[in-house]
Specification:
The structure is a single chain. The chain is α+β, with helices and mostly antiparallel strands and about 180 residues long. The protein has two domains: about 1-145, Aminopeptidase, CATH 3.40.630; about 145-180. The chain is built from five helices and eight strands. Strands 1, 2, 3, 4, 5, 6, 7 and 8 form an eight-stranded mixed sheet that branches. The mean pLDDT is about 90.
């Protein structure tokens, strides 16, 4: 029976890791499993949330939700993978579904498909209402009007701030380019 939940340090230290994680590690076998464990523990230490799909005590899939650096207050689906032999069984769907139940904010992601799976991955995220806002970034917005209205106000303030900041930086660059007298 597969269970999906937010994992803590103890969970990650205690669980076994399934064979077949290839996307976020450079090694295979036991070394790759430990590399993945250390990566996920590091993400926890950095303040991110790690969601895991566990088959008994074996990690068979994960997702990392992080602060979205491009959008203060937003979140990012930073990395996600299901072990190769376990794919196509709804595990990734359950991970994203559970994560999104807890994340009541704008969530962004940059899809990193394995070669040959570009369209499949896009369709997977579209099922959760992620839509492209640029050629490489997909975003899922909160479903209710009140939250969206708050985000509009927040984004408008950020645009004003970034516009003012950009003008100030350009002015400073121009001053630095002018010969001193």
């Amino acid at each position: 029976m597969i269970s999906v939940r937010k994992l803590g340090k103890e969970d990650l230290q205690r669980c076994a890791i399934a064979e077949g994680f290839v996307r976020w590690v450079s090694s295979t076998g036991e070394r790759g499993k430990e590399e993945l464990r250390e990566m996920l523990l590091g993400r926890l230490r950095d303040g991110n949330d790690v969601w895991g799909a566990l088959d008994d005590d074996t990690l068979v899939g994960f997702a990392v939700a992080a602060a979205w650096g491009a959008l203060p207050g937003g979140r990012a689906l930073d990395s996600m993978e299901v072990a190769t032999p376990r794919r196509g069984k709804g595990i990734g769907t359950e991970i994203v579904k559970r994560l999104l139940e807890q994340e009541d904010t704008i969530m962004g992601l940059t899809p990193y498909p394995e070669p040959g799976h570009e369209e499949d991955l896009e369709e997977f995220y579209r099922r959760f209402d992620f839509r492209h806002v640029t050629s490489d970034v997909m975003v899922r917005m909160p479903p209710d009007r009140e939250r969206l209205s708050r985000w509009v106000r927040h984004l408008e303030r950020l645009v004003d701030l970034y516009d003012s900041l950009l003008r100030a930086v350009k002015s400073r660059v121009k001053e630095a380019e002018e010969p001193s007298q």
